[in-house]
Structures are given as C-alpha cells and as structure tokens.
Recover the amino acids of this structure.
C-alpha cells in the first residue's frame, strides 16, 4: 500500500522543523501544524493517515482538537503527545478516540514506532473495509448480474 | 506561651479554687457556730434558772410544812397538856411518823423556860428569854433559825412557833435533822458537777457543798449576795481554783437563805465545747481537703491545657508543613511540565545531529578519527543526560499531580501480606526477619490499592536500605503492623531496626528533593510522593526515629463505612 503520511501538531515550531527534518532523513514525509485549527485545515487538504498531537497548546488544546479530528475524519489515527507524566491525560485522550500516547521527551524511534503501529492499524482497517465492500459488491454472482442490470 | 504564662494561670485557678470554698466553708461554720452558741447558752441558762426555782419551791414547801406541823400541834394541845413529858413523848412520836426530820421537840413558857423536852439532850430548866430565836418568836409568832451550834455544840437549826393562850404566850420548838435537810437541799443533779447549797444572809454555808465547803464555814467564793427578795440571778464566777462556774441564785421565801445552784462552766456547756471542737476539726480538715483538691485539680487542669496547647502547636505545624508541601508540589509540577518541552526539542536536535553525523559517515564525508569518536561519545552523553532529566521531571510530576485515587474498601489483613510477599525474597536475601503484627479486629480501610502499594513498597525499600546499611546481611528486623486506632481510623506501621534518621533530617523527610542517598541514586521524591498519596486518600503519614536504633513510619487511614 501507499506511503504513510504523518502530521505533527505542536506549538513549538523548532520541534516541528527538527523532527520533520529527522523523519525526512528516515524517509518519511511529514506535514506540520502549529495549532488545532491549522491541523484541521491541513487534514482537509491532504490525505493524512497518522496525526501526532500535542496535548497542551494555546487556543484549541489537544483534546479539543482530537475530538474535532475524530468527528470529521474518523479514519485518521491520532497519537497524543503529553507533557504530563501521569496516565491521566493519556487516559482522557484514549477515551476520546486516540490510538496511543507518547510522553515528552520522546525518542524519535519511539515516535516512529508508534506512528507505524498506528499506520498498520489504519491499513488493517482499510483492508477490512475493502473486504467488506467487496463482499457486498460480490455477495453472489447474481448480485453482480443484478448490479449490471440495474445501472 | 512561656512557662510564666502557665504559672500565672495556675495561681489564678489555685486562688479561686482555694479561696471561694474556704470562704464559704468558714462563713457557714462561723454563722452556725454563732447561733448554736447562742442557743446553747440561753438554753443552759434557762435550764439552770428553772432548776434553781423548782428547788427553791421544794425547800420552801419543806420548811412551810414543818412549820405547819408545829402550828398544828400548838393548836391541838394546851400548854398544860404538852408540859406533861409523857404527853410530849406521844406527840413527838406522832410527829415523827409524819416526818422523820424532827430530832427533838421542846415546850417553853412565856419566860423562856424550857418546860418540857423530848430528845437526846437534857435541856429542861434552861432559860432562853434572851435567845434571839425566843425574842423573834415572841415578836413574829414563829422563827426559823440559821444553822448554829447552841448548847449542843453541834450544827443544827430550829423552827419555833408561839401561841397566845389565856393572855399568855407559849412556844414549841423543834430541831431539824441537818443531815436530812442537807440531803433535801443537795438533791440536785445536773451534769457531773452540778450542785446546790444554801447560804445565809452573811454568806455562811447552811448546808454542805458537795465540791467542798463545810457547814457553817464562810463561802470561799465570797459571792456577792443579791438584795433579799430580788428575783433569780445567773452569773459566771471563778472559784478559788480558777475554775469557772455558772451560778444561779435565788432567795428562799420562808427564810432569808440564798439557794445557790452552780455547775462548772465546762460541764454546763459541754455540748458547746464538743461543737467547738468539731467545728475546728471540720474547718481544719475541710480546709486541708479543699487545698489538696485545689492543688490536685489545678495541676491536672494546667497540664491538660499545656497538652492541648502543645497539640495545637503540633497541628499548626503539621498544617503548615502540609500546605507548604502542596504548594511545592504544584510549583514543581508546573516547572517539570515546562522543562519537558525544551527537553523534547533538545532531544530532537540531538537525534538530528546523530542522524546527520551517521549520514555523513555513510557518504564518506567524515573520516574515522579521534575527534569524531569524542563527538559521538559526547552526543551519547547528551542523550543520557536528557534521559536523566526526563526521569526527574517524571518523578516531580508524579509527586505534584497525583491522579485522583480510586478508593476501594481494602481488607488490610489480606492486603498487607500480599504486598509484603513481593519483597519476602529480597528480605531473605538480606537476612532480614519480616514480621507481621496485624490485629485481627482491623476494620476495612478506604484507599486506592495501587497507590497504597506504591507507598508501602517505598517505605519497605527505604527500610531495607536502612537495615542493610546498619546490619549488613544479618540481624535485620522489619515489622509491618496494622491496628485500629479509634472507631474511625486504622494505623499501618512499618518499623525497622535500621540506621535511623537524625532529628534534623526528620524535619525535612517528606520534602521533595530531600535525600540522603548519593547523587544519582535517589531523586528525593519517594517519600514526598508517598505523603501526597496518603494525603489525597484523607490519611496522614508520620515518622518517629532514633538515630542508630531504627525508624517507624505510621500511616493513618480512614476506616471504611
């Protein structure tokens, strides 16, 4: 299947640019956004598979952004990036539909690992959907006939 | 609050507690004593007055009757008949039948010649014309004499009565038995020392006095005789021995003799003296009891107040410490959170440098050299130090941002052994004897089992470190105990016989970043996290320790229900 498309959302621009460069070196194309609204804008324009979302941002915070993303783009996998050491904020994120969470400061390998995991999940999901659609399409040979007969 | 403050308090309480009851006691005692004294005195005086008057009436009656006896004889017989000795004998016998106080009976003619006599003496023929009694009879018709010796040289007194017959006066005279008369007069018994006697107008004893005082002797007390026929008098007077007496005196009606009734004052007022004695005793004993009770109670009150003050101070200190810890926690958490962002950037930068470096190396842009190796080593070190920072900030965040505990009812009797089972292996490796002291009546507690486990593990691990540093791998003992504290609280304690904690360290033991471990070995956050956890469960954690003896951490948790 196609390449994984990631987006990093954080209010720290230096973190975004450095991580983007790092991931680019590892062969990943990464989009970045510095706020929740910007992230939603990017999602509309690009087909993004995995979003890594900082919990604490000025304006729309991570949890609110997560809820918006999941509402508008339910297929997008979201990994929360939290500065809190406790599971508290992670639990809240997971409850709101996040796939996983990362704790700051995080390793680039760890980040990449979780992102790939999420992408795999997304791929499996897409596969299931495709199979399901195929099954409806080709439930029985007659169905195909029926479909061709009823344009 | 200084000791002086308690001293003043003690003095005030003491003076109130002694002063008030003492004033009350003494005033009650003195008022009742005053009225009691008064009533006893008047009752005693009234009683002695009644006695003296009754006794006077009796003596008067006696004298009057004897006089009447003689007057009856005088009326019943003629001078001629009584002059006959045989007739006189018969009359005397009849007289004696009526009253045996008569000793003799004599008949006298107008000239005072003793005409006839019945009695033990030979008095017939004697002439009494010049005798006082005879003259008095001639004048008044009767006479009762004072006690005198007369011809007989024996104390006696006489009653004489005269009668006019055919123009001539004749007289009969009888002698009264002084012994019998004495007996009548003396027959008064009041208390131990009460006595009665008669004095004549010159203050000479007319009867014997029981306490000493012979017939016809002068009264040694030389009573001031009241005017004759005046009413009854009472007074106090000392006798020759200095003994005080209560006197009551009254004049007889039939004869000017003074009846004296007297009683020793101490005897008369015996009840009073008893009362005085009792009052004094009660005052002294009561006073002593009041003073003792006051000292005892004051001591207790003041020590109670002292203890309450100390407890208040301790509680205040505890509150301050708790709020300071909470503030510190907030601050540290905020700080740690903010540090995490730059830390993340540093990590990304470090990773980027590493990536660039390895790319360059692969592309052959960098040759292997000593400098390159050092650069790589240095990068590795940066990575390590970032990890260390991350660990620290995570601990701080754990301390500051305790997640809400999920409270459950835990049965400590099962729970504690489960927790200690996790470290039993480690204990046996270090030769530490693990002891359970779990009270069977420990109630359920309301706590978060995971967090409580974290706290207990922390305490147990600290205890291990302390034991190992003191005993090595032999002789350690670690006790985990549970017991109900009161109806609402349960205590869990972890007691070790390790190296103990010095007093100055005890004060700071729950403060974040306080550690006695070598740099890099401990963050100094373990116990402060424990403190935060127990606090969030509504409990307390305390420590007691003596350097070189051991330490005991005590957790108090609210009982369930």
């Amino acid at each position: 299947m196609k390449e994984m498309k990631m987006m990093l959302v954080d209010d720290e621009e230096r973190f975004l640019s450095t991580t983007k460069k790092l991931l680019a070196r590892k062969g990943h194309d990464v989009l970045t956004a510095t706020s929740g609204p910007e992230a939603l804008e990017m999602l509309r324009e690009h087909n993004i598979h995995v979003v890594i979302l900082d919990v604490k941002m000025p304006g729309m915070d991570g949890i609110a952004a997560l809820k918006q993303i999941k509402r508008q783009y339910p297929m997008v996998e979201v990994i929360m990036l939290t500065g809190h050491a406790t599971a508290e904020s992670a639990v809240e994120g997971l409850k709101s539909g996040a796939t996983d969470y990362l704790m700051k400061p995080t390793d680039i390998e760890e980040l990449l690992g979780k992102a790939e995991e999420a992408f795999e999940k997304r791929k499996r999901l897409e596969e299931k959907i495709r199979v399901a659609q195929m099954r409806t399409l080709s439930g029985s040979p007659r169905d195909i006939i029926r479909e061709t007969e009823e344009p | 609050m200084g000791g002086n403050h308690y001293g003043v308090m003690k003095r005030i309480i003491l003076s109130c507690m002694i002063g008030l009851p003492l004033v009350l006691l003494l005033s009650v005692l003195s008022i009742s004593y005053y009225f009691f004294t008064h009533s006893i005195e008047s009752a005693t005086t009234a009683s002695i007055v009644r006695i003296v008057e009754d006794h006077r009436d009796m003596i008067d009656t006696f004298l009057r009757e004897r006089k009447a006896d003689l007057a009856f004889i005088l009326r019943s017989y003629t001078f001629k008949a009584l002059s006959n000795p045989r007739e006189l004998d018969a009359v005397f016998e009849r007289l004696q039948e009526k009253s045996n106080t008569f000793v003799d009976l004599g008949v006298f003619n107008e000239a005072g010649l003793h005409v006839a006599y019945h009695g033990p003496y030979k008095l017939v023929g004697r002439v009494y014309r010049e005798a006082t009694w005879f003259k008095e009879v001639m004048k008044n018709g009767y006479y009762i004499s004072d006690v005198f010796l007369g011809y007989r040289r024996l104390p006696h007194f006489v009653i004489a009565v005269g009668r006019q017959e055919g123009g001539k006066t004749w007289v009969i005279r009888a002698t009264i038995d002084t012994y019998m008369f004495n007996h009548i007069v003396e027959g008064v018994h009041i208390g131990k020392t009460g006595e009665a006697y008669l004095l004549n107008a010159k203050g000479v004893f007319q009867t014997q006095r029981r306490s000493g005082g012979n017939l016809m002797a002068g009264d040694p007390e030389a009573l001031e005789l009241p005017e004759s026929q005046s009413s009854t008098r009472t007074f106090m007077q000392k006798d020759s021995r200095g003994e005080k007496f209560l006197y009551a005196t009254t004049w007889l009606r039939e004869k000017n003799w003074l009846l004296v009734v007297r009683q020793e004052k101490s005897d008369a007022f015996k009840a009073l003296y008893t009362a005085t004695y009792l009052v004094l005793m009660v005052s002294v004993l009561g006073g002593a009891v009041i003073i003792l009770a006051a000292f005892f109670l004051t001591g207790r009150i003041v020590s109670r107040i002292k203890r309450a003050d100390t407890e208040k101070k301790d509680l205040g200190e505890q509150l301050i410490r708790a709020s300071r810890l909470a503030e510190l926690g907030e601050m540290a958490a905020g700080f740690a959170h903010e540090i995490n962002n730059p830390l993340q950037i540093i990590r990304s930068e470090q990773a980027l440098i590493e990536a660039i470096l390895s790319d360059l190396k692969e592309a052959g842009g960098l040759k292997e050299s000593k400098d390159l190796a050092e650069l790589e080593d240095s990068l590795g070190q940066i990575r390590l130090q970032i990890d260390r920072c991350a660990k620290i900030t995570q601990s701080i965040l754990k301390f500051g941002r305790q997640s809400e505990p999920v409270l459950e009812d835990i049965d400590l009797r099962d729970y504690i052994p489960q927790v200690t089972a996790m470290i039993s292996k480690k204990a046996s490796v270090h030769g530490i004897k693990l002891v359970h002291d779990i009270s069977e009546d420990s109630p359920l507690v309301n706590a978060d089992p995971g967090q409580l486990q974290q706290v207990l593990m922390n305490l147990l691990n600290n205890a291990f470190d302390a034991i190992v540093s003191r005993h090595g791998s032999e002789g350690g003992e670690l006790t985990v105990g549970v017991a109900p504290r009161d109806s609402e609280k349960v205590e869990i304690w972890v007691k070790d016989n390790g190296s103990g904690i010095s007093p100055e360290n005890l004060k700071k033991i729950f403060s974040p970043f306080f550690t006695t471990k070598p740099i890099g070995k401990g963050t100094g956050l373990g116990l402060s996290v424990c403190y935060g956890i127990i606090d969030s469960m509504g409990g307390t954690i305390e420590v007691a320790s003596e350097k070189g003896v051991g330490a005991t951490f005590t957790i108090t948790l609210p009982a369930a229900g």
Chain B has a mean pLDDT of 86.
